[in-house]
Amino acid sequence: MSVQLDHAIVPSRDRKAAAELLAAILGVPWAQSSAFGPFSPVYVNDGLTLDFDQADGPFPVQHYCFRVSEAELDGIVERIRARGLACRSTPHGAADGRIDTGHGGRIVYWSEPDGHVWEALTLSYARRPPMPASRRPG
Fold first, then answer.
1. What are phi and psi of 56, to 5 degrees?
2. b or e along 87-108 (b: 16 or more beta carbons within 10 Å of the residue's beta carbon)?
3. How many helices (H) and strands (E) does the chain have?
4. How far apart are alpha carbons 13 and 55 in whole angstroms?
5. How far, in Å, CA of 32 to CA of 30, rounded?
6. Nearest of 71, 72, 70 to residue 44 by alpha carbon
7. What is the C-alpha radius of gyration for the chain, rounded to an integer number of angstroms?
């Protein structure tokens, strides 16, 4: 069996509201509480759960990226905009409301509600196979 990420903890100022919002944006189920701790889980897929945990003090901003189909990205963007949330074409910076298409696929970022950088992309720029030496420039 290959190594797979099963779950991750997401710190939040309001775990229930944050879990509900992410689940709504992604179009996946969530629960207000978990039988396995003080979490509000978001069931991203059959193999990954994001457990939102209440953080009363400061916490670091994290980056979470989801690879999705073209149709799923369209739905995510539609749900972000329907909720009046800001989105952008870059990981950081001003909300420009655009989708990045400079990596061969499409990418959108948003940071609600706790400042974490959420990303949805259709083609992984981190998982591209290396270019053969014969095709490399120079």
1. -85, -25
2. bbbeeeeeeeeebbeeeebbbb
3. 2, 6
4. 5
5. 7
6. 72
7. 16
- Amino acid identity of residue 102, one-letter, is G
Q: Does 58 sit behind a cis peptide bond, omega within 30 degrees of 0 on the bond before it?
A: no
Residue 46: the pLDDT is: 95
Structure tokens at 88: 């952008």
Q: Is 115 left (phi over 0), alpha (psi -120 to 50) or beta?
A: left
pTM of the model: 0.88
The residues, ordered by sequence, that sit 6+ positions from 99 with a Cβ below 8 Å of its Cβ are 73, 77, 89, 106, 107, 108
pLDDT tens by residue, 87-118:
999 999 999 999 999 988 999 999 999 999 99
